[in-house]
Design goal:
The complex is a heterodimer. Chain A is mainly α. Helix content of chain A is 74%, strand content 2%. In chain A, helix 9 runs antiparallel to helix 12 and helix 16 runs antiparallel to helix 18. Chain A is globular. Chain B has a single domain, classed as Helix Hairpins (Orthogonal Bundle). Chain B is built from three helices and no strands. In chain B, helix 1 packs antiparallel against helix 2 and helix 2 packs antiparallel against helix 3. The termini of chain B are far apart. Classes of the chains: A mainly alpha, B mainly alpha. Chains A and B meet through helix 26 of A and helix 1 of B.
Chain lengths: 603, 106
């Protein structure tokens, strides 16, 4: 009995430990920076241990509490969902989160806002774990927004820099666009099924599926939320700018977990999406376009973190593509491996950045392989996983998606394969420019290895990036997707793509001092920012003008001033009768009496 | 034969004269007098109604007559107050012309 209660407390512990840490740091220990950072790390480690315990046991269930209950109409419980999917996500989020917290101890060791940073990081963990655990749409949406908020705070951590403040604002507003669609989608599902709890919606699924058009609209609207959070085309513009935040934040939020929340959401509501072929089609193609777009832009970037950001966009595109091809297993598999190797890449990039005193331009690096041996080694592992080189984890998960595409949709497969070539190209380019050749600046000549507190998480992540894709390892965590009549063509083509892309890039960029090609359209990110600026200029500006006009002339001018002026005018009119002359009053009085008599007698 | 109609016509004429007096006279005392005339026109019609409204026992309806006594009493009080105000006003402004008294405060 006691054991049962302890077990049912575990999900609560997972969720509330980071929240407690954020509260304590914000309220009490802001002044003691090192102490605050240790509280935060301890909390996330606690969460991780509880997550491990939950992962090993399938019989854990937490009691459900009623939060809002309008009888028969609207019921929002506070409850946890603890299926295979959420238990895996718990492990990934809290595991990668723990490593990044530890790494942050090193990366942020001299930061003035260390307490604020760790409080926000803890709050993020709380929100992210909340998304994973939520068993209904309302809870998920609240944590979803909370994640957006903490992302805003952390991107703008160095808010005294204008670019960081702008980036934070952009990230928040861009994801809000998607979240609005998400909210409408939730309401549509609720209207049709009368419930917000995932299990109940599954039970009443026929109520929604009976109207295919409605279902498609609802599914696509929910997908909008994922488009915003997972930085899919056309709302991908915020993610590269989000790199203004500290590098561990980029690794945790903008590579491993928060951006994957969109994919997690899609997998969670797969029962809805898979009921509509149109929605699947839209999702698959949005993912495909995003994958290609991200890879194309990444080829021409010169900021070490921005390249990784575009690569994240591209990889998220792969996951969404897998969801669109109706395979949750492939999407989750790639999410799982990507969380490790992309977090690893970011943290290794962070290690480079810190040893070069915050230099992020790859053309000012070079020749770092011999100076930062461990960083180089781990970065190389991450890069090999990212480009899908066997036997690194990325090979297996990407191959699973490509094999899926090969079977179900050849156009998508060909775009996916092109993307794989491009991925190999830009990743090799990055590695070659950053780590090989001769140092191209003074800071690069003086670079030295980062402290152990940063190196150890790198090694751990490198281990997982290397092994997470192997059948023997992965099957302990999730269902490894297997296509029934597995063809040898996709893996062979993928390896071919890798070899072509990587060798081409290696030959082209070996010993280069500056950029070899200048493709303006890629350098300028396909003019998305310019286009949005133009769009906002012509739509939002117009709407704002109309709103201002209505406010100024109809609300202020008509209703508010109109009421005042009307009363004033009527008063002036009545004042004409107040002449002060007794006989005038008597006359008016007489007229009034006559009028009264007239109305009572003759009407 | 004098009927109720005759009385009411006289009463109406008196009331009209009174009302005209209130309208056109400038002297406040004259206005007060015209006011009395209007009150008495009303009294006359009330008494006439009483006289012509006879019940089955041959008695007139005394309600109207009681009403008239009230009006006479109130009118007396009103004249007392009104004249007192006029005297006070005359002391202050040396005039009884209503056209000179148009402001509440001076």
């Amino acid at each position: 009995m006691i054991r049962q209660t302890t077990n049912s407390l575990l999900p609560w512990l997972v969720l509330l430990l980071p929240f407690g840490s954020a509260t304590v740091i914000t309220l009490f220990t802001r002044r003691w920076k090192t102490f605050s950072s240790f509280i935060s790390v301890a909390a996330v480690l606690g969460s991780f241990i509880c997550s491990c315990l939950i992962f090993t046991r399938t019989d854990i269930s937490a009691p459900e509490y009623t939060w809002i209950d309008i009888r028969g109409l609207f019921n929002v419980p506070i409850g946890f969902i603890l299926d295979d999917l959420s238990r895996l996500m718990l492990l990934v989020v809290s595991g990668v989160g723990s490593l990044i917290h530890i790494y942050s101890l090193g990366y942020m060791r001299e930061d003035a806002g260390k307490s604020r940073y760790f409080a926000a990081l803890s709050l993020f963990m709380f929100a992210m774990l909340g998304i994973v655990l939520a068993n209904n749409f309302v809870m998920m949406f609240i944590f979803w927004e909370l994640v957006g908020f903490t992302s805003y705070v952390l991107i703008g951590h160095w808010f005294e820099r204008d670019s960081a403040a702008e980036a934070a604002k952009k990230a928040f507003l861009t994801t809000r666009v998607g979240d609005f669609g998400f909210m409408i989608g939730i309401l549509m599902v609720w209207m049709a099924s009368g419930s917000l709890v995932f299990d109940d919606i599954v039970a009443h699924l026929s109520k929604i599926t009976s109207n295919p058009g409605y279902l498609t609209v609802a599914a696509v609207l929910i997908f909008c939320g994922a488009v915003g959070k997972s930085a899919q085309f056309p709302l991908h513009v915020w993610l590269p700018d989000a790199m203004e935040g500290p590098t561990p934040v980029s690794a945790l939020i903008h590579a491993a977990t928060m951006v994957a929340a969109g994919v997690y959401l899609l997998v969670r509501v797969a029962f809805l999406i898979q009921a509509s072929q149109t929605a699947l089609f839209v999702i698959a193609w949005i993912g495909t376009i995003t994958a290609l777009l991200g890879a194309l832009i990444a080829m021409q970037q010169s900021d070490i973190k921005r390249i990784l950001a575009y690569s994240t966009i591209s990889q998220l595109g792969y996951m969404v593509m897998a969801v669109g091809l109706a395979s949750n297993e492939a999407a989750m598999f790639h999410l799982f491996t990507h969380a490790f190797f992309k977090a690893l890449l970011f943290l290794a990039a962070g290690s480079v950045i810190i040893s070069l005193h915050h230099e992020q331009n790859i053309w000012k690096m070079g020749g770092l392989a011999s100076k930062l041996k461990i960083t180089f080694g781990t970065f190389a592992v991450g890069a090999l996983a990212l480009i899908g080189c066997p036997p690194f984890s990325g090979f297996f998960s990407k191959d699973a998606i490509l094999a899926l595409a090969y079977q179900r949709n050849l156009p998508i497969f060909s775009v996916g394969l092109t993307t794989a070539v491009l991925t190999a190209f830009y990743v090799t380019r990055q590695v070659v420019i950053v780590f090989f050749g001769k140092p191209r600046s003074d800071v690069a000549r003086g670079g030295k290895e980062s402290p152990p507190v940063m190196i150890i998480p790198l090694l751990v992540l490198a281990f997982f990036a290397l092994t997470a894709g192997l059948q023997v390892v992965a099957q302990n965590f999730l269902i490894v997707p297997h296509e029934k009549e597995a063809s040898v063509i996709p893996p062979v083509l993928a390896i071919l793509a890798l070899i072509v892309g990587a060798s081409l890039s290696f030959l082209l960029y070996r010993n280069r001092e500056s950029e070899r090609f200048h493709v303006e359209v890629l350098r300028r990110l396909f003019y998305f920012d310019e286009f949005y600026a133009w769009l906002i200029d012509h739509t939002q500006e117009l709407l704002a003008r109309i709103a201002a006009f209505v406010d100024r002339w109809i609300v202020d001018g008509g209703a508010v001033s109109g009421a005042g002026a009307g009363t004033f005018g009527f008063g002036s009119l009545l004042r004409l009768f107040q002449v002060g002359n007794l006989q005038a009053y008597a006359f008016l009085f007489g007229l009034g009496v006559v009028a009264l008599i007239y109305f009572t007698i003759f009407h | 034969m004098v009927t109720l109609g005759h009385y009411l016509i006289v009463s109406g004429i008196l009331f009209t004269i009174g009302f005209a007096g209130v309208m056109v006279r400038r002297n406040i005392i004259n206005i007060l007098m015209a006011l009395e005339l209007m009150l008495n026109a009303a009294n006359l019609s009330l008494v006439a109604f009483s006289r012509f409204h006879v019940d089955s026992g041959g008695l007139p309806n005394f309600n109207a007559q009681v009403f008239v006594f009230f009006i006479i009493t109130v009118a007396a009080a009103e004249v007392a107050v009104g004249l007192a105000i006029v005297v006070a006003l005359f002391r202050l402004r040396q005039t009884t012309n209503v056209e000179d008294i148009t402001a509440l405060k001076f």
